[in-house]
């Protein structure tokens, strides 16, 4: 019972333009929002089929282009545990998105047969979008895809990527012993804010935090969070305008801060010396902290600084709880992690490096009892393995100090959004650690000093000519290039540089770091010159 007629009817309402080619990459499908109509329809169909394949479990769909400009949009599928779509299905997504209008129904039929999808199974999909102007019509296209298969759809409205991931996990674990939380936005806020209150109770009042919402969906969600937190975390929101055209991610947001290495101009004159500020990205899954020091210098507390702060705190708690022998904490980074952060961490605990893309970090972090992963750009979270959760629940502390540390650890498991990087959950996590350690931004920053670094984009005729190994830290092709990079790096104190093709843009990225700012810049530009 393959619904040929319905598929053909709805698919004719969402024709694919002949000249367009799409690819499901690290960020799902992502391009100009106005060309994504056929893709969203087909993603609706695919999500419905994925749910059938997984015996009717709820699959998620998030419509966003994160930190990209406002006119871009994109879509990603979320698997039932709230994690990214299984890699094998990325290719199916690309295939279906690129089928011609005439062939679509046949290509789909073959896919259903080859993947042994039982069409009589139920299918359920929960979806959401960010504030982008193209989002509303893309949701309609997605809904037509669900209708074509007869799937049950649940519209989670305008919300953040991490809320959608949370919902998927909460829906699928409802009534089981792994219940993740109530399956609503309210449930998300309840769970997080309750854990936060417990973790900071009895500590001194937290000084006010400035939050840059990137003029995106983080703004309404942070506003709601404020109601749940009350006085426990005072914060002031900036860049909350989600209606003025062109505002999203424009001169603000986590990506702006990280790539420009300066605060959003809208915060000029706002930040007091030493005051903590942070920026979310357009879908609130990335977080950057920063502050202005005594000498008016801008200092960035990026994903690496967050990872080190959090990992060191968790290692301490595990030891204090008397669990050091049983619970191993590890950190996962990418090649973009500042060399100084890796050095700082490697003295304390195991550090692994994976290729760029959250799915790689996430999977590597799952190998640890407690895995902390962050990309330097501020996307990351902490994963507690199922056996660790059980240990934390069952462990019998033998002293009051052990009991306190254990309680903190258990509250952390509730505070952290373990499905995906979550700017707001990560922000609360950072605030907890700062409160426990009685650290200001200055003290946090002084844990180690970042090596000056430079990231350069190079437009090349064919970025696929660049192939890497060793978690993208070395080039295997073009042949001979890596040797030249190695030779050049040796001439710079603390010099490190690598080259990799971007997975999200048609460019090659060059990263370089060195002990001196001028040297890092020079190394980056010289390597860029060799790439071109
Ligand atoms: P690419 O374009 O493959 O470098 C970028 C970011 C990644 C990740 C993805 C997905 C950098 C250097 N790269 O990937 O960290 O966030 O986008 O959004 O920041
Ligand atoms: Zn994002």
Automatic annotation (TrEMBL):
<dbReference type="InterPro" id="IPR005843">
    <property type="entry name" value="A-D-PHexomutase_C"/>
</dbReference>
<dbReference type="InterPro" id="IPR049023">
    <property type="entry name" value="AMG1_II"/>
</dbReference>
<dbReference type="InterPro" id="IPR016066">
    <property type="entry name" value="A-D-PHexomutase_CS"/>
</dbReference>
<dbReference type="Pfam" id="PF21405">
    <property type="entry name" value="AMG1_II"/>
</dbReference>
<dbReference type="GO" id="GO:0005975">
    <property type="term" value="P:carbohydrate metabolic process"/>
</dbReference>
<dbReference type="InterPro" id="IPR036900">
    <property type="entry name" value="A-D-PHexomutase_C_sf"/>
</dbReference>
<dbReference type="InterPro" id="IPR005844">
    <property type="entry name" value="A-D-PHexomutase_a/b/a-I"/>
</dbReference>
<protein>
    <submittedName>
        <fullName>Uncharacterized protein</fullName>
    </submittedName>
</protein>
<dbReference type="Pfam" id="PF02878">
    <property type="entry name" value="PGM_PMM_I"/>
</dbReference>
<dbReference type="GO" id="GO:0000287">
    <property type="term" value="F:magnesium ion binding"/>
</dbReference>
<dbReference type="InterPro" id="IPR016657">
    <property type="entry name" value="PAGM"/>
</dbReference>
<dbReference type="GO" id="GO:0071555">
    <property type="term" value="P:cell wall organization"/>
</dbReference>
<dbReference type="InterPro" id="IPR049022">
    <property type="entry name" value="AMG1_III"/>
</dbReference>
<dbReference type="Pfam" id="PF00408">
    <property type="entry name" value="PGM_PMM_IV"/>
</dbReference>
<dbReference type="InterPro" id="IPR016055">
    <property type="entry name" value="A-D-PHexomutase_a/b/a-I/II/III"/>
</dbReference>
<dbReference type="GO" id="GO:0006048">
    <property type="term" value="P:UDP-N-acetylglucosamine biosynthetic process"/>
</dbReference>
<dbReference type="Pfam" id="PF21404">
    <property type="entry name" value="AMG1_III"/>
</dbReference>
<dbReference type="GO" id="GO:0004610">
    <property type="term" value="F:phosphoacetylglucosamine mutase activity"/>
</dbReference>
